[in-house]
Amino acid sequence: MANILVVDDELGIRDLLSEILNDEGHNVELAENAAQARAARQRMRPDLVLLDIWMPDTDGVTLLKEWSTTGLLTMPVIMMSGHATIETAVEATKIGAQSFLEKPITLQKLLKAVETGLNRVAAAAVAAAASPALARPGIVATRPVAAVPIAALGAELTVEAAMTGGQSLPPVVELGPQARQTFELDKPLREARDEFEKCYFEYHLAREGGSMTRVAERTGLERTHLYRKLKQLGVDLSRGKRGSA
Known about the structure:
Elements: E1 3-7, H1 11-23, E2 27-31, H2 34-44, E3 48-52, H3 60-69, E4 77-81, H4 86-95, E5 99-102, H5 107-130, H6 159-163, H7 189-207, H8 212-219, H9 223-233, H10 239-244
Parallel strand pairs: 1-2, 1-3, 3-4, 4-5
Helix pairs in contact: 3-4
């Protein structure tokens, strides 16, 4: 589990990234501008930052440069933008950004970039702990916190798997909604379809213990689209997780 700061002036982007990263088991802090990002950086000491380039008060590149020059760029920063030029992306990388994601951000690229950043944090912590300088009197080596690999699309590492050498324990699932449902057909097609789709997704959420990764695989939907579909249908995303607790 990592502490991740998401900085973006678009509410929809913040909410979507927060849902995805929370579902991956991370703690997420949100900021809509540079002022909030500065405060969050001091308060939570994030392990990684997702930083939008174009913001109303101070742009992301300027904030990145500010952190770099003041010694606060101690965490990986992934820049995001839907309108940035190659020159802007190169400039951000030279300042110290780890990578650049172009909007609309695909799920695979997001998870891969975050995983790479957290793995670098873990590797740096291990290297620092192993440094000979730490053996000198008066220097205390703190135990590095290992980053948990993010589940890639098509594969998921559960807590049980990590504790049993990669063997997943059988999940305890309360299916809740039945696999067979009776639907009222004397209604407009759109209403009937929405009713069916809601029951369909509720069933799979319960079956998969609330795991959005496995539901996406089971239903054949890209997970970003799946989130939007569930919100549109009014599906309770916590239902499956309560059933598997």
